[in-house]
């Protein structure tokens, strides 16, 4: 009996040891590959492509679902509305009527018509008292946008983009879309935060243009828009060029901006942009550098975009000209020390990605996407051109 029990105990002990050995072997062997993969995966640096300057409207505080502005420690509700005024009809006469007398114009058929809209902006205290109420009508935006579009547009609620403390102003975006079409343009409206008086009414961008570089400098004293550089001290520096199209704007640092011009088209006639159409300029409009850069074409009307990216780890702006296969590197601290790199002079990326590399993709329009692998130790680059599978 004793021998039988002793033998059974030995057998169970051996079985348990074999089972434990098997488990240990599996625990050590199976994750061995996964462990290597995990090491590789976690050793790759994540590409921090956060824009160096926060775009307008990126962070809006809200209370009970409504946008608020914090002004000098006081909380205010920001209320907006856009409603049609069917008692006031708008008519857009054909451009050929220019120079005709008023009686002739009055008897001509209109080339477009619509109705006025009333846009209301209110800054309200928590107890319901209005600090100000500002009312604007459709044609108040005529200095900034196409009159024909304004006449044929339907009203929409303005969007609050934020309070600018250094300007002591509230900024709003208003979209105007011609009814039944995809023709759209937006305007920026800046209102004094005390009185509600209009500071600026500016063209923002067209619906087909994707890159919107509107942004404040880190000190909040300069606002870059597609049409002007606004200063908190009241200066306005226009950056538009006659008969050219401003394709994109981008802050490079707290002193310098990039403005990209493209060919203009007016009444069917095209006006070519200069060869060096990308301008690096100061906030007083002085051009410090210029170089050729084609805007990215998007598959929507004649829209443009910017093949652009930024890496925090290298403090560098990356711009890609797909047509010429040229990559531009502009250091944030010294954008005038621009590097111009032809893709043919760069090595093509071959897997694996190195642990010291971060990848950034530069593709906003139609055509191949450029992915750049940046070695953060020696600043060497490799690249891939990838087909955009989203395109037909």
**Backbone structural class:** mainly beta
The main pleated sheet reads as:
5 strands, antiparallel
**Count of helical regions:** 3
Gyration radius over CA: 30 Å
Strand order of the largest sheet: 1-2-3-4-5
Low-confidence stretches: 1-43, 95-101
Beta content: 35-45%
Mean pLDDT: 83
DSSP, total strands: 29
N- to C-terminal distance: 82 Å
Plain-language structure description:
- The protein has 392 residues and is mainly beta.
- It is 14% helix and 43% strand.
- It contains 3 helices and 29 strands.
- It has helices spanning 2-43, 102-107, 147-152; strands at residues 62-63, 66-71, 74-92, 112-124, 130-137, 153-154, 159-164, 169-178, 184-192, 198-206, 215-216, 222-224, 228-231, 236-238, 245-251, 256-262, 264-266, 269-271, 278-282, 287-291, 296-297, 304-305, 308-311, 316-321, 326-331, 339-342, 357-362, 369-375, 381-386.
- Strand 24 (316-321) and strand 25 form a beta hairpin.
- It is globular and about 65 Å long.
């Amino acid at each position: 009996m004793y021998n039988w029990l002793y033998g059974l105990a030995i057998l169970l002990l051996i079985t348990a040891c074999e089972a434990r050995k098997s488990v240990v072997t599996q625990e050590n062997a199976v994750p061995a590959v996964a462990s290597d993969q995990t090491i590789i995966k976690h050793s790759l640096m994540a590409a921090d492509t956060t824009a160096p300057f926060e775009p307008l409207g990126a962070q809006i505080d809200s209370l009970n679902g409504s946008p608020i502005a914090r002004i000098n420690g006081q909380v205010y509700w920001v209320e907006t509305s856009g409603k049609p005024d069917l008692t006031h009809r708008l008519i857009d006469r054909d451009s050929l009527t220019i120079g005709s007398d008023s009686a002739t114009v009055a008897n001509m058929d209109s080339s477009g018509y619509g109705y006025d809209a009333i846009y209301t902006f209110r800054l309200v205290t928590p107890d319901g008292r209005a600090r100000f109420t500002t009312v604007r009508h459709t044609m108040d935006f005529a200095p900034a946008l196409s009159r024909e579009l304004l006449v044929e547009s339907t009203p929409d609620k303005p969007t609050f983009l934020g309070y600018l403390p250094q300007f002591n102003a509230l900024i709003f975006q208003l979209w105007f879309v011609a009814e039944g079409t995809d023709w759209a343009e937006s305007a920026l409206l800046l209102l004094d935060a005390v009185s509600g008086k209009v500071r600026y009414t500016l063209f923002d961008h067209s619906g087909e243009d994707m890159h919107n570089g509107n942004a404040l400098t880190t000190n909040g004293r300069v606002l870059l828009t597609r049409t002007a550089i606004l200063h908190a001290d009241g200066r306005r520096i226009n950056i538009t060029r006659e008969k050219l199209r401003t394709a994109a704007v981008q802050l490079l640092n707290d002193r310098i901006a990039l403005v990209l011009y493209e060919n203009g088209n007016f009444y069917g006639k095209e006006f070519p942009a200069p060869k060096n159409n990308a301008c690096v300029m100061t906030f007083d409009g002085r051009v410090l550098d210029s170089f050729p850069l084609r805007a990215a074409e998007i598959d929507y009307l004649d829209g443009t975009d910017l093949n652009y990216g930024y890496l925090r780890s290298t403090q560098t702006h990356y711009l890609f000209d797909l047509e010429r296969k040229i990559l531009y590197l502009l250091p944030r601290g010294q954008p005038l020390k621009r590097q111009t790199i032809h893709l043919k002079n760069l090595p093509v990326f071959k897997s694996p990605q190195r642990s010291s590399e971060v990848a950034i993709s530069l593709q906003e329009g139609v055509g191949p996407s450029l992915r750049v692998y940046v070695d953060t130790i020696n600043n060497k680059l490799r690249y891939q051109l990838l087909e955009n599978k989203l395109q037909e």
